[in-house]
Amino acid sequence: MTAPLPLPESFALTFRGYDREQVDERIDELLAEIRLLTADRDAAVAEAEHLARRLERARADHAELSARTDRLCRTPADPAAVGDRVRHLLELAHGEADEIVATARERAAAIVREAEEAAQQRIADARAQAYRTVDDARRRADRLAAIERRTADRLREIDAFLADAEGLLGEHTPLRAVA
């Protein structure tokens, strides 16, 4: 899990500044949304990992069954040593066994393919969600940074205006001490 982008907890108050409650509320909303998106992404990654583990188990089961089938098929009864009727029954049994083995192998291969496809899709979905989350967070951070820059520019303009105003007041009207 990656940590969400750090956002300032609060901003300094200045003369004619921003509405502190409104900005703090918006930052809290954005942080909550980032936490939610991060949790969704983490859940998708966990699901993909779970599917990958199931796929590995299915592969292991498939390998074990294939090994058992091969072991059983290597030691067939010798049809030449038995009578015609038993030979015929053994040939039928071998034919059925071959069909069962072929069907089982096809089904196992289909299960493995489906599990691989599902795992790949989950992983792709999790990655896409993670990229979207990061992109959204970056865009929001950029917007907040732009707002902060505009606010700082505006404050500098106000400070310059106030300094000019104080200079003008100082030139034309003597300042009196207030008791």
Q: Mind explaining what this structure looks like?
A:
This protein has 179 residues and is mainly α. Helix content is 80%, strand content 0%. The chain has helices spanning 20-74, 84-172. The longest helix has 89 residues, at 84-172. The relative contact order is 0.11.
Summarize the SSE layout with pairings.
Blueprint: H1 20-74, H2 84-172
Helix pairs in contact: 1-2
Helix share bin? over 70%
The tally of helices reads: 2
Extract low-pLDDT stretches. Answer: none
> What would you report as the Rg, rounded to the nearest angstrom?
37 Å
Q: By helix and strand content, what is the structural category?
A: mainly alpha
C-alpha geometry: rod-shaped
What is the quaternary state of this protein? single chain
N- to C-terminal separation?
62 Å
How large is the share of residues in beta strands? under 5%
Q: How many E strands?
A: 0
Please write the string of helix (H) and strand (E) elements: HH
Rounded mean pLDDT is 82
Q: What's the story with the biggest beta sheet?
A: none
Characteristic key phrases:
single chain, 179 residues, mainly alpha
Short description:
The chain has 179 residues and is mainly alpha-helical. Helix content is 80%, strand content 0%.
